């Protein structure tokens, strides 16, 4: 997103702790405050809600991306979301105390976080527009144009949930839509 001078980079790099999780481990439970910001080394995770036994997938994170329930983490308020691993995952994690200290001590790190947060918000707003305005086929095509690798990484039932489609519609699109 932006380069950091050596002093800031060293302070930023030293607070990350490597962690490993098995497939289908819940890292954040709805109602709890997110304790960590994650960076994904390997694996796939998802953020989802669970309402009346119905799951709705909000987003996926995978290799090379940040993960965690960002609003809960940054605001230190209970999360409405669950965060779980879909595959075995190797992550780096930073706790809130280190995050807060770094953003207060280093204005460039705070700026990096702000730019990253606004970038993530922009993506969520664009996805919200797609969910409200696009047909099922348009949503499917947009996803595969943006992230063609997801068909091999993520179980189709979660992709259907992410697109707001029932699994049968997703399966039909998978067999009929050619990109």
Structural class: alpha+beta
Helix content: 40-55%
CATH topology of the largest domain: Jelly Rolls
Strand content: 25-35%
* CA radius of gyration: 17 Å
DSSP summary: helix tally:
8
Give the rounded overall mean pLDDT. 93
Number of strands: 8
In the CATH scheme, the class of the largest domain would be Mainly Beta
Give the N-terminus to C-terminus distance in angstroms: 30 Å
H/E element sequence: HEEEEEEHEEHHHHHH
Q: Write the CATH homologous superfamily of the largest domain.
A: Jelly Rolls
Strand order of the largest sheet: 1-8-3-6
The parts where pLDDT drops under 50 for at least 5 residues are: none
- For the record, the count of structural domains works out to 2
State the shape. globular
Second rung of CATH, namely the architecture of the largest domain: Sandwich
**Main beta sheet strand tally, sense and closure:** 4 strands, antiparallel
Describe this structure in words.
With 179 residues, the chain is of the alpha+beta class. It has two domains: 6-133, Jelly Rolls (Sandwich), CATH 2.60.120.10; 134-179. Helix content is 47%, strand content 25%. It contains eight helices and eight strands, in the order αββββββαββαααααα. The protein has helices spanning 6-14, 70-75, 96-105, 107-133, 136-146, 150-153, 156-163, 167-176; strands at 17-21, 26-28, 36-42, 44-51, 54-62, 66-67, 82-85, 89-95. The strands form two sheets. It has a four-stranded antiparallel beta sheet. Strands 2-7-4-5 form a four-stranded antiparallel beta sheet. Strand 4 and strand 5 (54-62) form a beta hairpin. Helix 3 packs across helix 4 (107-133) and helix 7 packs across helix 8 (167-176). The longest helix has 27 residues, at 107-133. The radius of gyration is 17 Å and the shape is globular. The relative contact order is 0.17. The model has no long low-confidence stretch (mean pLDDT 93).
């Amino acid at each position: 997103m932006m380069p950091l001078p050596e002093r800031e980079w060293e302070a930023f790099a030293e607070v990350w702790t490597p962690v490993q999780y098995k497939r289908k481990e819940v890292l954040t439970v709805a109602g709890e405050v997110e304790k960590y910001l994650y960076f994904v080394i390997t694996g796939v995770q998802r953020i989802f809600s669970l309402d009346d036994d119905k799951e709705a997938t909000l987003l996926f994170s995978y290799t090379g991306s940040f993960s965690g329930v960002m609003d809960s983490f940054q605001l230190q308020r209970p999360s409405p979301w669950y965060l779980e691993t879909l595959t075995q995952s190797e992550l780096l994690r930073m706790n809130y105390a280190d995050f807060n200290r770094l953003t207060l001590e280093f204005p460039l790190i705070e700026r990096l976080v702000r730019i990253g947060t606004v970038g993530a918000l922009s993506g969520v707003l664009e996805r919200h527009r797609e969910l409200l305005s696009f047909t099922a086929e348009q949503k499917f095509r947009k996803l595969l144009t943006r992230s063609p690798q997801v068909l091999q990484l993520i179980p189709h039932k979660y992709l259907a949930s992410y697109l707001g489609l029932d699994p049968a519609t997703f399966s039909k699109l998978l067999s009929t839509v050619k990109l």
